[in-house]
Each structure stands twice: as structure tokens, then as C-alpha cells.
Amino acid sequence: MRAWLISGMLGALALVSGSVAAQSTKSVAPTLVPQPAAKTVLPDSKTPAAPSGPHELTKADLDAWLDGYVPAALNEGDIPGAVVVVVKDGQILTARGFGYADVAKKLPVDPERTLFRPGSVSKLFTWTAVMQLVEAGKLDLDTDVNKYLDFAIPPYDGKPITLRQIMTHTAGFEEYGKGVVFYDPKYIQPLDVYLKSYVPKRIYAPGTTPAYSNWATALAGYIVQRRSGEEFDAYIERHIFTPLGMHNSTFRQPLPAALSGQMSVGYDKGAKPGKFENVGPGPAGALSSSGTDMARFMLANLGGGELDGQRILSKQTIDMMHNSPLDHVNSYSLLPPLNRMELGFFELNLNGHRAVGHLGDVNAFHTALDLLLDQGVGIYVSVNSAGRAGAGGKLRLTLPEDFAARYLPMPEPAKLGVTPEQAKQHAQMMTGLWEASRRGETSFLSLLYFMGQTKVSVGADGSLVIPDLVATNGRPREWVEIAPFVWKDRYGQERLAAKVVDGKVVRWSFDLAAPWEVFDRVPAGKSSAWILPGIYLSIAILLLTFLFWPVAWFVRRKYASPLALTGRSRRLYRATRIMAGLDLAMLIGWAMVVSNLLGAQSGDPAELDSTLWLLQIAGAIIFVGAVGIAAWNAWLTWTDGRRWKSKLWSILVLLATLMLLYFAHRFGLIAMTVHY
User: Fold this and answer.
1) pTM score, whole prediction
2) Residue 630 in 3-state DSSP?
3) Helical pair 644-666 and 609-639, crossing angle rounded to 10 deg
4) Which residues does 485 contact at the CB level (< 8 Å), separation at least 6?
5) CA distances from 106 to 2, 100, 102, 231, 265 (A)
6) Cross-strand bridge partners of residue 495
7) Cα dihedral angle (510, 514, 516, 519), rounded to 10 degrees?
8) How far apart are CA 590 and CA 9, in angstroms?
């Protein structure tokens, strides 16, 4: 959902290093869906491109609108190319390529042949495969998945996970980003090897909390492979691509020779070309496909599982995936009336109209697939670059939204269901720090989510203020409460809702994120409200302690004034300053690792392993040792008759080392793992 406040973390560490360059708000690893960000971008209907009323959806009108909309957006966002496909009433209404698939060769995007990487939209094919095996009686959605595996998923409080929970992203796994995307195909692992190498920790009871998981999706793909007896990529080809006539699509990595020449270049930013991105958890995002092939997949979904006489799923199953019953859903995982997770599909709000679909992102490609079920319309848009300031990710959100604004009737304006006094009270109940449910918890990745905690406050007029939620044009969202604990953007259709338990707000989310991520209150032990000031102050104390040592030595030497301390007191005086410097050096080391990780372009997933082990082992010695040395030094300082200033400073140094030890322990800097 949101890019992260990485610059904040690096800025804090730069107080001691001075060597960490400013970073862009780029995710730790491409995770195939919108990421937590310093500013979470939401679709906005109050933009110059958004039309004011419904038009008849015809090919002529749509093509004319796209001809004006897309080239302007590509040019403004510095995006080389895009593909846009719209289906309606069982047919492809239009399939358009815009810009270049290869800028250097001036090769235009061909909607029928050019392959794009739709990222997490790939998951829809994995879920389709799962449901095919459910129909065949080989899988059950509510059975412990360990029944289908040759390795064990540990229970959480004695509770297993099911395929239904995996498909609704409520299995409870923490985020796992290592090896999600990389360039060199030599690091591709067989699906079973990838999954067995590490099982992410489950941090929620199954069924209770949406927390998006690529790893769990790969697990579902492995179950398909085991129960079908076919290798996953081959299964998708035989049971989905071939029946639907999707001849320009594959999950295989690297690309088969027959398709490699059709692949669009992926551009990291603007027109800077990148290499083909291999996806480690293949079933979660390895698809390469053309625009018209994706149109055929949309048509099959809109056609009740059938296209051109070929059926991939029954209508009953397709309907269940698009609008799943709540019989097996834990109500705590839902935030009515917000969008929810169906069986593999996101529920979406396009200008006030219900749709289902999926979003997808890798480094270069950014994609949306939306099905307006009541209207029999499907929209697929994909771009081959992140563009300037994330323009690619914004375009795949705004184009479907503006399409709906142009061709579908505007919904009735929401009527306010609360009094001004109630609205102020409810906004006040929302204040505080919140953390996303999709996060890393047991490795240093948790540090980045710590820096991304979301602050909710109340404006001068008593309105709800969430600075991190902004529109695609950068304007702050203005939230108006339309029902008890349900807010709506004053100028758009985005909604936000909260869950109240025992008179307290315990959870909230917004339409775009609600299917796969919610926000819970930050526990006191993780709150940046006190930890960040504590860290800043501790760094300052240790930095002054370390720097004052050579300064004091120089002054004493100049004035021939020897250090008054002798013996053990002198040794501890020096050891305390050495440990202060080493504490700071550890923070600099972590800053450099994080900077390298964020700036690295998808190299060897294990290239940082040795460095991570070194930092964690050294950190365990240094962070703990610094506390011991500082405590011993403080004891001697208070017992050998030194001045009150020395006594006070010794306590401050001890508290500073304790603060860094707590920080390192709580946020995974000494977790003793290279999995993240």
C-alpha cells in the first residue's frame, strides 16, 4: 500500500554517519502489490482528466478518450509505454498499445504480442488453478493445508491454516521480502526449495487479520503442483492458457525462446532500461502476458468461467470467487462497508461502483485488472515503468477510476449520518499511532515498518486528519463522516472505516487497502512517539561522549594536565568511550546495509547474508557489552568521589546504551537471522 518513511530512518542514522545518501521512498523489496509509503496514493476523482458525466461506452468514444488521456499521462509521467484493454458484453471492445515497448529500438507496444509483467495480477491464475482442483475434489478450502504438503506449517495457538485463509490473505504470515524479485536467472529455485528454505512466522491467528502474503500464494501454487501431479507452470498452460487461447502468456522464468522476443523492456525510472525481473515466489507474480491474452482471461471471468465454448470453471465457482459467502469468514477481519477480499479477488470501488480485480507491481511494471460485474465490463491497464515520482503506479489507479467516471452514472452523494458533535468525538477516538497489518515483525525489516507508523490526528475544525493518505495529485484527503465511524473523501469515492470494540477504536482501513491490510494501534513498546526521541537523544549523548574523548586529550596535552583517573577507573573511562563509538558504528553499519538494500537492483538474494550475520553477531556483543561497560563505569563514578557532572553524565551514557540495546532487540538488529 504505501512507500515507506525510509528517508526518516536514514536521516536519523545519518546523525552519526553523515555518509548515508538520501533515499527515495522505495520499498525494501518489490512485493508485487502497492507498498506502505510515506504518502499512500489513492485514486482521486477531483482531477482535470476526470469527466463530469456518463458517456455511451462505444469503441469510437473510448478510443478517442484514450487517445487524449494515455499519451498525455505517459508524457507527463515519463513512462515509455502502456497497454490498455477494455472488454464488454463478451467481446474485446478495444485493445490499445501506447508508446514504446523498447525505446532504443523505437518498437511500439503491440496489445496482441507485446508481453508485460502484471506482477500480483498473476495470483488470479493461481487462485483459478486452486478452484479447479476444488471442483475436481482434490482440494478442500477449509482443510488444514498440511494435509497437502510434504513439510509442515507450524500451528498458531494450535490452529492450522486453510486454503480459504490463504486466498483471503488471512493466514497470518508476516511479510517476507527476501528473494521476491531478482535479475539473474541462476538464482531461480524450484518451488519446493524456495518454500522449504524458510517458513515466515505467523503473527496473527488464522482468519482474523488481512495481511497480504506472496509466500502464502507460492504455497498455494505448490499445493496445486502436488495435488495435480503437474509442474505449476505446465499446469497453468494446460488448464488455463490453452483452453482460453492465451498463446502469448507464460509463468516460465526465464522466458521461453518463442516468447522472449516479444517481451517489453522494463524501465526502472523513466526511460532507464532494466533487465527481466525474475520472481522468486513464481505463483505470486511471475506471469508475462499480452494485453489481448489478459482480455481473454477477463472475458472468461465475466462469462461465468467459459470463453468460446471452453470452460475453465463452473459459473457457481466463478460467482463464489467474485462474491464469496461470509459463512467461513471471521467478522473481525472485515470492516464494513469497506471493500473486502473475495476468494482471491480484491473488491474495488470504481467511482462508487463495485468491481473486483487485482493490482500488481514489480520494479518496472505496474498493473490493474478490474471487472465491473454488473456492467459486464473489464479493464486492464499496465505500464512498463515506475515513471517520474511513481507516475506509473498512479496511472494504473486513475485510469480505471476516470473510465468509470466517464461511462457509468455518478452515485448519489452520501448523506451525513452523524451530527457535527459526534463527528468530532469520533475523530478524536481515532487519534494516535497505527501500524499496518502487512509487515515484517521478526527481522530488521520491522525497523522499516516502525518508521512507517501512521499518525492520525484531529484538525482545528475537529475533522479527521491522516497526512499519509493523499490523492494522486498530492492533495491531502478531506474526510467527511457519513455514518458512525465511516468516512468518505469529500472530493472522491474513497471510504475509510473503523472498528469499535468496547467503546474504543481498535482497527481501521480504507477502501483501496482494506482487502489485504488493516491498521491496528501501535503497542506502547513499539511506539515511535517515544522511541524516536529516545534514539535521537541517545545518539547525541554517545556521539558527544565519543568525540569529547580526543578533544579532552588534546586539551590536557596542550596544558600539560594529566587525566586524574588511574587504574581501573581510567580503563573503564576509556572502555566506555570505545563502546560509545562502537555503538554508533553499529548504527552506521545498519544504515549502510539498508541503504544498499534499497538501492540494489535485484541482485543475488543472498548477497547480504554474510554482512547481516556480521552485523548481528557484532551487534549482540557490542550493544550488550556497551550496557555492561557503561553500568560498571557508572558504579565506579558514583563510588569514587567524582564531581556531580561526571556522575550525571555516566547515568546518561548508561541510559543511552540501554536505549540502543532495546532498539536493536525490539526491531531485529540482533535477531540472528538472514531471512527478512
Assistant:
1) 0.91
2) helix
3) 150
4) 426, 497, 498, 499, 500, 505
5) 34, 6, 6, 37, 11
6) 488
7) 60
8) 11
Is residue 380 within 8 A of residue 369, CB to CB? The reply is yes
Grid cell for residue 330: 471471521
Strands across the sheet with 454-458, in order?
464-465, 454-458, 432-436, 519-521, 504-510, 495-501, 486-489, 479-483
Yes or no: say if 37 and 472 are a contact pair by the CB < 8 Å rule: no
Whole-angstrom distance, CA of residue 370 vs CA of residue 348: 8
Query: Hey, what's the torsion of the CAs at 322, 328, 333, 334, to 10 degrees?
Result: 50
Strand, helix or coil for residue 543: helix
Cα distance between residue 602 and residue 598, in whole Å: 10
Handedness of CA 79, 251, 517, 671 (dihedral sign): negative
Res. 205: pLDDT tops 60: yes
| Percent helix, percent strand, percent coil in the chain, to nearest 5 | 40, 20, 40
- C-alpha 174/C-alpha 183 separation (Å) is 25
What is the C-alpha separation between 333 and 41, in angstroms, rounded? 23
DSSP letter at 209 equals -
d(CA 115, CA 381): 13
Rounded distance between C-alpha atoms, residue 305 and residue 307, angstroms: 7
Q: How many CB atoms lie within 10 A of CB 642?
A: 16
CB 654 within 8 A of CB 648: no
Q: Which of 210-219, 353-362, 364-373, 601-610 has the lowest mean pLDDT?
A: 601-610
* AA identity, residue 515: P
Counting every residue written for the chain, the total comes to: 676
Over residues 418-429, mean pLDDT: 96
- Reduced 3-state DSSP string for 458-520: ECCCCCEECCCEEECCCCECCEEEEECCEEEECCCCCEEEEEEECCEEEEEEECCCCCCECEE
The distance from CA 206 to its chain's CA centroid, rounded to whole angstroms, is 20
pLDDT of residue 39: 53
Count other C-beta atoms under 10 Å from residue 264's C-beta.
29
Distance of alpha carbon 535 from alpha carbon 527, whole angstroms: 12
Q: Which helix (H) or strand (E) holds 41?
A: strand 40-42
Angle between helices 123-135 and 315-322 (to 10 degrees): 130
Asked if residues 450 and 12 have their Cβ atoms less than 8 Å apart, the reply is: no
Q: Can you tell me the distance from the alpha carbon of 495 to that of 488, in angstroms, rounded to the nearest whole number?
A: 4
